[in-house]
Amino acid sequence: MAASTPRTKTFQSPTNNIYRKSYLSPSSSTTPSHHLTPQTPQILTPLRRSARHVSRKIDLGDDDQENLNPPIEEMNLIRKRERAPRKQSTDGLKTPKKKIKSKDAEVSFSPVSPIRSEKTTRKRRNTETSSNKRVYYNKVEFDSVEFQIGDDVYVKRKEDEEEEDDDDAEIEDCRICFKSGSINNVMIECDDCLGGFHLKCLKPPLKEVPEGDWICNFCQGQSLEVPKPPEGKKVARTAREKLLSSDLWAARIEKLWRGGVDGVYWIRARWYMIPEETASGRQPHNLKREVYLTNDFADVEMRCVLRHCFVKSPKEFAKASNDGDDVFLCEYEYDVHWHSFKRLADGDCESDDHEWKEEEEVGDSDEELEVEDEDSVRDSKSKRGLASSKAANSLKGRFFGLDKVGAKRIPEHVRCHKQSELEKAKATLLLATRPKSLPCRNKEMEEITAFIKGSILDDQCLGRCMYIHGVPGTGKTVSVLSVMKNLKAEVEEGSVSPYCFVEINGLKLASPEKIYTVIYEALSGHRVGWKKALHSLNERFAEGKRIGKEEEKPCILLIDELDLLVTRNQSVLYNILDWPTRPNSKLIVLGIANTMDLPEKLLPRISSRMGIQRLCFGPYNHTQLQEIISTRLKGIDAFEKQAIEFASRKVAAISGDARRALEICRRAAEVADYRLKNSTTAKNQLVVMADVEAAIQEMFQAPHIQVMKSVSKLSKIYLTAMVHELYKTGMAETTFDRVATTVSSLCGTNGEAFPGWDVLLKVGCELGECRIILCEPGERHRLQKLQLNFPSDDVAFALKDNKDLPWLGNYL
């Protein structure tokens, strides 16, 4: 992606003037040899993109040319020989047939003797062995410049550019004063035309480089006359300008070798391509300094290499604001055969280089690898590859299968235009976006930090448990993760002893017993069955035996949705909460659930092991919700203050769920963005209260909410009893007998007639048909499991202000 700050010009090359080099081969006098010699771009002048395939000149001598192009008369004789009936079968040896004239001027069609053929082959091999021998390197110093495998370089395009390349400017001149920069005179680059300007030459002049994108006055469309260079001043083009205008090539070095009798250095180049050279051309969302890595290779002489350039990934390119003019972005790979793009994985450009180095086992330039030809290189690499095969997880981040096909064009949404304030607000208000800071929970975070530090800093570390509870959307999990992030920074500083952290979410477990497998895999790195994992964990926490090469340090176990681990005999919770009580366990358990009285509902042997360390996260009030939203939108001017307050008060009156408040504000930003795009007369560019009201009406007037408002009285009581039962137990599901008991209690307390179990069963079936609740299939009516298909906040919103049953709000 494009850097967020303008690129400033640097004025000192990494190796000063060592890039200025002559284009003569290391050996001034070369003798022609009859061997496989790839031609360079200097020998064969290319036309356009297709000319990057460097042709190979094959010279096999006169005899071989005669074999490759036999005369027509001989071909006719061979065809007659093939059509003639064979008297005697040969051994299947097929050799090329040549005209052999005898003294009687008769043509003989007998095949050449195998012994004679072997002799000629051996002689030819002996003569070509010395010419085909190659010496491969990892590093080469050529004309006082060091090149190594994986470097990105400029490659000359035409031989007649030698005079022009001598005037290659490594530092660009200012577009106004036509003078190069210095250390005291900083230059800034325009993000549109890539032109360089001194800060002092601008009108008005700039004191420092501004943040964000910067566009010069000439590109902004102002009526300014572009300055012309003074008379006699020759403006030399930089290598970057030549590359982006297709007058220069860029490539990545895949191999380095010295071959042949003349000892010329060669490189295996993998070409880069600018967007104009692709089949789709330059697209509007292409960046100015963007290039594509292709699957096109060629052998090029070292004398065609101009100097280094630097092609970076999006993350590296964003940090390369002051790395000079020879910096380019490469995010996609382009297939020259299928004309398709695929996104490169992070670090993909470097992984190939490391693999090559490991397989070749070649050191620096002092260590050489001599081989006869390229086929033996492939054979040796395949053998060494079998001997040192890589692990499966080393291929993490690569693309396989259909992802290798790619797309014909780069999607525009990947790097579209500059984001507006509303687009930034929508991205920031996403629930998946982790905030930089968590307000309104400082007291709770301090208590969690003190509990963990008190357990880790203890020399014995006998193990402790802490139960964290609260209604959904109150920041329980985010607070614990923020504390662990701060502790990790303290561990790196050395103020806190190291520990092992394992995070588990009960919703991601297929069954409660799978938690043993997850814990064992986090500690050992291996996956086993839950029974074997339970046995190993018992030895680890009860007897103090280490798992594999595990270091002896405390383990912090975070279990989110702890109530989902409750089973019939409650053995899973008992084992997990019993481990911290063992003397050699060094285990700290942090359990998170929505139910306040979960320990009291468990067996006494489990509640006693859970301990007395409890922390309650209460629901947010409107002031805290307003502060949370304002913190997220810090630096983004997209909302009116009254709109944020209105959304906070609406959510605080219903549930106090911060996630619901963020969703409403994000939807309000989408409504405002749609309104502004379709209206040409809209003056207010901010999210107003009307947009928030539209988002609330859209969210709380969904079809399922309308169904809840229109059901019968008994169905409303049934839903209220179900929400009350789920909130009381803290479980995600309940049974029909518990709901019926709660309905009976509510009707008796508020003067309503209890209809009976058969009528309630019919009501439950009707709600199940509407998909308001989910019913377990089967004939077990009394123990049938029930679950809400929508959040309980939607039920509370639909039934809280009911006129026929005003007392429902007391139980929601």
TrEMBL record:
One of its GO terms (cellular component) is nuclear origin of replication recognition complex. InterPro entries: AAA+_ATPase, AAA_lid_10, ATPase_AAA_core, BAH_dom, BAH_sf, Cdc6_C, ORC1/CDC6, P-loop_NTPase. Residues 348-376 have a biased composition (Acidic residues). This is Origin recognition complex subunit 1. Residues 1-19 have a biased composition (Polar residues). Component of the origin recognition complex (ORC) composed of at least ORC1, ORC2, ORC3, ORC4, ORC5 and ORC6. ORC is regulated in a cell-cycle and development dependent manner. It is sequentially assembled at the exit from anaphase of mitosis and disassembled as cells enter S phase. Binds unmodified and methylated histone H3. GO terms for molecular function: ATP binding; ATP hydrolysis activity; chromatin binding; DNA replication origin binding; zinc ion binding. It is found in: Nucleus. CDD domains: BAH_plant_2. Residues 171-222 form the PHD-type domain. Residues 1-130, 348-384 are annotated as: Disordered. Component of the origin recognition complex (ORC) that binds origins of replication. DNA-binding is ATP-dependent, however specific DNA sequences that define origins of replication have not been identified so far. ORC is required to assemble the pre-replication complex necessary to initiate DNA replication. The lineage of its organism: Eukaryota, Viridiplantae, Streptophyta, Embryophyta, Tracheophyta. Residues 24-42 have a biased composition (Low complexity). Keywords: Activator, ATP-binding, DNA replication, DNA-binding, Magnesium, Metal-binding, Nucleotide-binding, Nucleus, Transcription, Transcription regulation, Zinc, Zinc-finger. GO terms for biological process: DNA replication initiation; mitotic DNA replication checkpoint signaling. Residues 227-345 form the BAH domain. Belongs to the ORC1 family.
